[in-house]
Amino acid sequence: MIPDASFDGGDLDCGNGLLILIRQQLGPLERGQLLHLRSTEKSVAEDLPSWSRLTGNDLLEYRTEVTSLETVHHFLVVKGTLAERQVFLEGKVAPKRQKLPGVVNPVGDRFVPLPRRDQWVPELPKLAVFGIGSMPRPAWLLRMLHEKLEGRITEEEFENAADDAVRLVVSSQDRAGVDVLSDGEQRRDTYSGFVGGRLSCCRLIPVSDLLPYVDDPDKFKAELSQLDVPAEKVHHPALLGPLVRNRPLALQELAFLRTVTDRPIKVALPGPYLLTRTLFLECLSEKVYKEREALAADVIRLLRAEIEDLLAHGATLVQIDEPVLTEVVLAQPKKRRSFMCGALSGRLPKEEELEFARSILVQTLAGFPRERLAIHVCRGNWSRDESVALSGDYEPLVELFSKVPVGMLLLEFSTPRAGEMKVLRDLPKQTKLGLGLVNPKTMEIESESAIMKRVEEAFDLFGADRVVALHPDCGFATFADNPVSSLEVARAKLEVLACVANRFR
Length: 505
What we know:
By secondary structure, the chain is an alpha/beta fold.
């Protein structure tokens, strides 16, 4: 069998980034095409069969070549299964040799610098209505997203298509009566993992490629399957070098939104604790950072630069996503793992972990105008099955909330899992609240009367001047390939929030 592509892994072992490079080389190939891997590292012969079995890419051949200078191991891997190889050949598609990217694959950038907008920024209206983050992506955009991740289309081709998807999402929000617009994270594969595709020091790899690194790969894969998380489709960022902001994370999202609206704009960013937990994975990040504190210092620098740019260029509100905080205080260690695309790494005991999170949040956000910063915290949003999501009130996080310099907390309150609002009564008076009052996981549309009752409860507890926003509990499509709602249902839920807000106004 003649390979369609070849590359030399040298003396890298599977724990030193070889698996990331294999995935990078497989990406541009058609399913059923063949990749030849050459390696001088003997441990690869033991590790690659396990990787092949867990990721569903068949290892067709293995042989060893011994010379006077070295022993070379040769592997022939099919992208997909041998059955898919047969389908590929029966389709009479002539295999093409691919010009594959090398080890260093610079990321292009279509972003054009914008004039700063320090002088005027649209303000939040009273009792503002907005989405929290993601909106369902069109099927054609999902296909192109995977083609981009596999290197089969250019970034420019994908971005042009994403522009059209953003126009659709903005139109949907307009129809719903939303006050503060976002792009629905159409360009992102997940709410936090997208960072791996924006920075040249990272790569996005399927979660299934991380399976060989966990203690019990088969058990972990089974848990992901139970939680409706497609491990072969959900991508996770992996560090290849020190974290450097060689281009913006989300400024290009703001840039395009400003071409289609003059309304207030909100941009969501993964928080420093979330990013540190996401990126600090044993056997991957430890090759670059020996301690997570060193990684956190670079995360802080990266996010401060991003926040400064977003505020300077006209974002009315920058939302910091920190959902993994609830994993720290609510997860039960003896129960099955709670997958939050950021909770894959280990953590210290609760009090130490909360202090670490508080410290890096303060360092990241200090000095920025509080009224233009918000923190969003929820309890997981990957499945419609409420039983797999975390449950418990916000009381264990009140002290942290009180010390972080943001003007607004965006919290979920639409389900009994979130507990009572009254546990937040001790928050500082300057802390405003956004209430999550529709559930993105359900298809039924909440009634205006039920939402109004919850708003009145919040007014009684905190005063009408401190309740400043209404929103869903979380995004409608946290993982691009696994949306928990449709665009039409998302629009209807936002519309009922807008109707309630108008009544109170």
